[in-house]
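LAB NOTEBOOK - FOLDING QUEUE
OPERATOR: T.R.
BATCH SIZE: 2
PURPOSE: Compare the predicted structure-token outputs for two unrelated chains run back to back under identical settings.
PRIORITY: normal
REVIEWER: second-year student, initials M.K.

ITEM 1
FIELD SEQUENCE / FIELD STRUCTURE:
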Amino acid sequence: MPDTNPDTNPDTNNATRQAESAEARPVADRGVTPMMAQYLEIKAGYPDALLFYRMGDFYEMFHDDAVIASAALDITLTKRGKHEGADIAMCGVPVHSADGYLSRLIRKGFKVAVCEQIEDPAEARKRGNKSVVRRDVVRLVTPGTLTEDELLDARNHNYLAALAETGAGGQGGGGVAGVRFGLAWLDMSTGDFHVQPLGAADLGAVLARLSPGELLLPEKLLQRPELFEVFADWKDRMTPMPSSRFDSENARRRVESLFEVKALDAFGEFERAELAAVGALLDYVELTQKGKLPRLSPPRRQRQGSVMEIDAATRRNLELSQALNGGRAGTLLAAIDRTVTGAGARLLAARLAGPLTDAAAVSARQDVVAFLIEQDALRDDLRRRLRRCPDIERALSRLSLGRGGPRDLAAVRDGLAEAGEMRALLAAEKLAPLPADLGGILKDLGFHDPLVERLQRALASDLPLQARDGGFIATGYDARLDEYRGLRDESRKLIAALQSRYAEETGIANLKIRHNNVLGYYIEVTPTQAPRMPSGADAPFIHRQTLASAVRYSTVELADLQQEIASAADKAQAIELQLFENLVIEIDQRSAGVALAAAALAGLDVATALAELALQGRWCRPKVDDGTAFHIAAGRHPVVEAALAKNQAGGFVANDCDLADERRLWLVTGPNMAGKSTFLRQNALIAILAQMGAFVPADAAHIGIVDRLFSRVGAADDLARGRSTFMVEMVETAVILNQATPRSLVILDEIGRGTATFDGLSIAWACVEHLHEVNRSRALFATHYHELTTLAAKLPSLACHAMRVKEWQGEVIFLHEVAAGAADRSYGIHVARLAGLPAAAVARAEEVLATLEQGEQAGVLTRLADDLPLFAAARQQQQPPGFSETPAVPSAVEERLSEINPDDLTPRQALELLYALKRLSENL
């Protein structure tokens, strides 16, 4: 069979690249080439982005873009021609593997303008040999506007967010107290669209919850000193925009037009700042997508205070979704994730990031989990079918943007088919009445059988990535397509037969008929075989091209056959592409229902995953209400417990926690290594799990809604902002004392340890009093300052608890249990021994401790400083026996040496002196 595939023919690719690259060859002393003029004109419109300039099978970059990209991608930087007297730097990446390079650039914070050829090169040649193929930017790729699976994490949302403001600060006021912010965010890959009003105090926590891939904001906000701290963590993700883009009235009209409504009341009562943020977001999406908008759900308004606010420091300290080392392993999300679809994983992460503050909504989610725990067969069937569900959300978004392919159609087909099967499972009469939220999921799964049936008939079993590759419409779906495919395929058989006949007629067995985009079909033989080809005026073979490795010919018969093949293939491709567009249009017309089904599948995945988790871990359903209770019976740390089970390191020691009103502040003392930090963290994590609608690792739990969660656990500096560990600790503590409310939960560990003893004790003392008297929050306060236990007599809601320790035969055993009372010792020296401090240092530490514990009598510290037996003992161990460190009288040898000037000695005198010193030493 002849090689007729231009994608696998090296001559085709080489010829195409050479033809396109010819545009880049400057003519000496003629100034800017037409191609470079075009490049510079397009680049001027995107000064802040790297320009991927399509040339044949490559995206090329020039000048500064090439220098930057070659370093970022570790690819070769070359030079070609000159511009304004300087060499033109150049590098490129293949089109077929561009997504991998794009992903690396986006992760490093770059934006990329993708410039495609929008004209057939043949059309350009009609305008003249020096005409340049028309090109234009078809898309601006930024961190917040990704849609391709290759560029995204399937298990995480990628939000594009916009922030706007109204109020005194927006008019040049000196502060943010009177400012109202509006934050809008969407995930372009799924169409998820939200908006929320918020005050300045909530801004940092909301951004930490969303962790947007890109944040749009007015340029004026960057000039506000009071917001510098909030934006410090997002400076690499911020895209400043002109303030004119944040116009609330224009935004209102835009949203009404987009969603075809006369008023936005059905979506919520939006504040001006919210509308301004929505408008800026839509403008930016349209700008980056060159006029196209993805399928977007109507903006859902999230009222302020509807989720538990958790600031960035607390999320970092608790390692909710990202560990301190930057990875996912060891996080709460990794420990609880049992989802089996990408959409379910994204929904689980979103629920974990924003636990609810509506007790009724929490209870409704728990009802679904409890129902699925009881229905073993149903749960197993659902999870088995969910595993076969593709990511409908992202496929739908790509199709709406014109970036989808046949596999996205198949994703919609297969996902909706499984949705239909799960709809039947949930609607079975034998099931008990469904909980309200599960009934909503059943309704949202909808009825999509006609669409599924059409897609099943239309799509072939083996699908290409792109529609232009063809072959994705099943045989029998369209009669005209089948007819042209038959003509095309029959013609190819004729090509094969023609090749065999020509080989027989010429006697050249390895004669081939090949194809490329320049010559079309041609006959090829080697140079040594060329003399055997019939030549002359009457010969059928017409010479076309001579290369070093081949000689190429054509015939009238072959040219006629080529025209017939091209006509049939082109018509078949045109019909197939039209059928593809028809299927996309049909899906788009049903996109609202398809999106609801996709969301319902994600909800089912999360619910079944949480049920599976509760069964595996023996977790209980917590009672969540609007009170201020916080009672945990035999609570456990979900991450530590999972790690112990994985490593077969024994069971986790469970502990109770009861922060009732009369003991809402626990002062926890005890040694390091005894589990104080684990105890603090586990209670915070249990509160998060409870309010996201999950079961919790405990025997029983009753939690009053927590509006804000604060954690100050662990120690780390922030050198980038010039902050020491202690400064970071004080900043985070200040946030807690300024923002915590009576409905908040606060966990604090070792406040004040980073400074002098009395300073640290004073700060810790004041913090305990402030939490008790001013914030009145439910709080766990761990400390080594045992002196704080005396506050129990003064503060009625302060309860002292300690980590239990057992001493046996001189050894200390940490029991990891929390009990009422106060610890009498910290056992720090024991921990130092476990860490491997030298025995001499440990012994000296015990001696100093014993002295200090005698009391604070005057002079005790000075006496300890003057008496340094530790260092004296160390020196004695290093000196030979009999050696005196400070001899009272110089020895004879020393006296003799003191009289000598080595520079005055001859070699013979030095040798004699050495013998004399030896005799002196023997007589000592």
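ITEM 2
FIELD SEQUENCE / FIELD STRUCTURE:
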Amino acid sequence: MKVYTAVRKCLAHLLHPLGHLLAFYPLLFLVVVGLWALVWGQVLTEYDAFHQIWHDKWWVGIANGALVAFILGIVTMSVRLTSRPTQSGKKAPDSQKSPASLLSFHVSWWLLLLLFAVPIVRAEPGAAAAERLDYSADWRRWFPLGFVLAMFVDAVLVWVSTRTPKSAPTVGGQPRGRFVRLCTNSAPRLVLCALTAGYLAMVVIHASFTNVYCPIFPASVSFLLYFSLFTALLGGLTFLARNRWWGLYPAMVGIIGFVVLFPSKQVENQVPHMTIGKSAKDSYYDRRAVLANYDELRQGDGGGLVDDRKALEAWDKAMLREFGSPQPLVIVACSGGASASALYTADVLYNYEEQHPGFSKRIRLISGASGGMLGAAYFVSQLRPGGAISQAQATDEYREYLTARRKGTPATDPSFQVTRAAYMKVMEKCRKEFFAGLEADFLGPLVQKWVHKDVPLSPFGFLGGLIPWFGQTTNDRGAALEEAWARHQNRALDVPFRDLREDEAAGTLPSLVFSPMMIEDGRLLFISNLNLDYMVETGQNDTYPDHDKRLRSYIGAEFYKLFPQAHQFRLSTAVRMNAAFPFFSPAAALPTDPVRHVVDAGYYDNYGMVVATKWLLRKKIADYLKGPYATARTASGTNPEVLFLRIRCFGNQHTPRMLPTEAELDKHARHHLGPRKLRDEWVKWKSEDGTKPPVRTEGGLFTLTAPLIGALAARRANMVYRADERLEAGFQEYSEKPNEVRVEEYPLDCSVEPSLNWVLTKRDIQRIHEDVRGDVGKLNEGANQRPSRFVVPMIAVPPPVPNITKVGQPPVSNRSEFQMQAKVANELVTAQFVRKQVKRIEPADGTLTPTLQYSLQKKAELASKLSQLPVPKPPDPNVPAPKK
């Protein structure tokens, strides 16, 4: 019994800080739990927060580990100091302090470090994050090595404080031993003071300058530095409150309540470059657009917006000049998804342009959300003079390759192979320059501005009357994101949005349509150089001559109708507003009365289908496509057609055509087949008789979380299924008469699941490129080099997706026409390739879900179709190459 009592007292004494942390300090305990969830990859997994902590760069991983150890040290030290025995509310004398209290602090700290280092021995740390990490790298060791570094520094300080004899000579009247011990015991305080001073200096610098960025502090380091100061502040407040500073917590609640209850006193994040005209003096924030007058504002021309029907006619004429015959019209709708979607969208478009020169000229309209529109806008910017693609198109190798293609030189001809090899060398060089602008770290600058400027200054908006830049600012994390794009993309997007207007009107450049959502009313803000007045309301624009009868409701407003003289408004700002996802990006306040804040277009439509289908279904557009355009195509012996490309990096492509959700499929696989995840799990599920226990995915708090879960499910369903319904309406509109004009959908789905973040790991980047090169590049290459080519006939409505199909087995359909076409396409184009791709994507059993099979087949059909199209005229060698 005595031994048990002694052991119990010893453990209680050593684990004193941990016991008090759990029992008496809930705020500090939440800090530890939140940090633990972050380090173990249990939170923010879709944003790859795990890999931001367990970084693959050695110095970042070590810095993260040292900072996490420092935060845990602050927590345990705060508990130790606050839990000392007191007398009448005062600190106890040294004689009453436990001599082993410092040892208990170290033991508790070491145990916490051990707990936080456990993921190093796990097979798949962070589950989804681990799947994306490159295990050939030494990423596992760097983060725990930061713990070792922190422990070594602590051991050195303890050793120095105990090794100096008390009889040593004095320094400043104090014995050296006491002086050294004083310094070493105060080392944590000195470190905190240094960090605080550095943080305040960074606040001043970031508030004074807009383009500040320190690349040695990536997002994780900046966040952990800020979190350590927050933890120290929380520990200090807890210590003072323990010593009866009872007014601290009410004061904190009062400050937070003041900021929340008086929104007019908060900092207003404004849209940059909103000057009136070309002058930098007058701003729309001094003369706001009154939303109540929007009916009158609609009557203006938006400062010279381009009529979309005339732009379509100009595009058709440009195709005749460039190719000598009418060409298919291409519409692109891309999904959101930060850097991953930007990279995937740009890679798909670049591959099609590389394999089929002139593909980009056939694109008339591009719409979408978030990162997808970043990739699309960057691609379009590189088509302009001075862009990477434009520079490549001005080379002799490019011109010789186009000449050989136009002459119909066989792919087996040795001279053609030499010409093509030279062309691919030029395009590969262009590829490196092109994708360097999308593979960079855009999260670091954003987080730096967030933690060093936006967060600390946000409560002081009430000082705007005294200091203007306290009340409103354009120097925020949104501007930092734009500057990061400009820094890595040769300022390709840092141009006035109006500069694209002339090329769009001439039909030589695709039209970009951004559609961020306004928070206050859920309506869209259409940012485009096209006059999209018909998009802001429901119903057909030309149905009734009387406006009051025609208008049912507004679904949005046009940017250039509200601000027609915003000549300096940047393309990068439009991209950023279209990808603003709070809290990572601010909800910018428009200069309107009442104020409207805009956020990511993905809140309303993450796939760009609303804009694309409304443009396609507009009566004037449909009349031209079914009239002059179809007539010219038929006269030239080709089928009039619209190619509708749906580029989706995060398209929920696995479950739209089946009732079980992805989470339910995964749980069914775990229950019945072990831990493997099979995409064809629903096939095995549908063979059951229903006698097994049902799969349940709701948690214990489902009664409380059901409203939120239902709202999120409804949001996703509205976007996914509404998009399909609108596209079906487009098929019906253009299938009234045979051979009039055909609309065909081509879903281009990414088969990998990268992180949803503004920074990607090397492995994520590699996997996205491999997916595009495999599913798009190889198909296009095979279509271009195939000696006998064919054209897959177009149909009006896509067939229903068949039930599960084995590799190479033609899909079963109730449309005999499509069944024949699909069989021909599968036999002549994709049979062998699909087998290889399925084996690569689904190594488990070589089967595909209908959606992925259909997507892969449509990619093959698109490659075959594009291979039949003529190439543009070679550039004139007498015209000098465009300069950057």
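REVIEWER COMMENT (ITEM 2): The chain is about 55% helix and 10% strand.
FOLLOW-UP: none requested
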